[in-house]
Amino acid sequence: MKLLLLIYSGSSPDRVTELLDRLPVEGYTEIDRATARGGRAGGWAPAPGRESTVLFTLVRAEDVLTITQAVGAEAKRLPEGERLHLAVLPVETVV
Predict the structure, then answer these.
(1) How confident is the model at residue 50 (pLDDT cuts 50, 70, 90)?
(2) What is the DSSP code string of 1-67?
(3) Which domains does the chain have, with CATH numbers?
(4) Which of 19, 81, 85, 90 allows an S-S link to 44, with CB 3.0 to 4.6 Å?
């Protein structure tokens, strides 16, 4: 299993949830109106003070490539000023 963390900054968070609904993602948690503080860790964190939508989900490791390719393609299609970032984290235990 892998934990996917998506951070979207823009006016249409539905575009991300609609994307996830088309992918091998069984469910996800969405946190609206998240705000960042401090610097931009690794250059991918949302700008401080700007509201973002944070989504996270557990997926099978074999589905990660399909999902990351789709998220990357969607990120390239975003209007200027909007951002979509994805982090993939290992999961050791699921209870």
Answers:
(1) confident
(2) -EEEEEEEESS-THHHHHHHHTTT----EEEEEEE--S--GGGTSPPTT-EEEEEEEEE-GGGHHHH
(3) 2-40+47-55+64-90 (3.30.70.120)
(4) 85
